[in-house]
Write the structure tokens for this entry.
Amino acid sequence: MIQPTRTNLLLLKDRLHAVLNCTTILKGRRQALIKEFLKITKPLMQSREEVSQAYARAIDALQVSKARERPVAVDALSAISRRKIAVEVAEGNLLGLRFRDLTMHETVARTFDERPYDMYGSSPWLDEAIHEFEGIVEEMLSLANFEGKFRRLAEELVRLTRRIRILEERVTPELRLDIHAMSQYLAERERETYFRLKRFKSYAE
């Protein structure tokens, strides 16, 4: 229990003022992050839809290839086409929010001349399937960049909302109640002191 004094009352009022300022700052930051969140959400959803459509096309092309080619030939070309993709993962900063930023240093999708086999070892349907899957990998790497920002923004928005709710629904009301109770107590004590002095003055007279 805080001792009801004028000094403690002023400290409580200062603390309430600081809490209100902190709440305003947190709300401003949350509003700015919401704008960035909405800015990222639209291209992210579009990219997911494009990847889904490309995956459906790639599966269709692969099924046609398996129907026209021998499974051994399909597996052999798939094994030959495998390669490592050079990417760089760095730390990005968005309004003071740190996240993982992914950068590709090469293009995943290759032309026919860049592939490690000649035209006699493949078929148009299998080439189309490989092209579609390479495009999916490239799109998913680009999507991973959005996913990192999206996840960090979502986590930060949840954290800010929780802090603002605690300040508004718990800390601020408790401070207001303490200030009100202490003000009432001090006012009552001042009235008692006033009447006591007045009575003492009348006795003295």
About this structure: The longest strand covers residues 87-94. Residues 6-200 form a domain with the Helix Hairpins fold (CATH 1.10.287.3240). The chain has one domain: 6-200. The helical segments are 6-68, 71-81, 124-204.
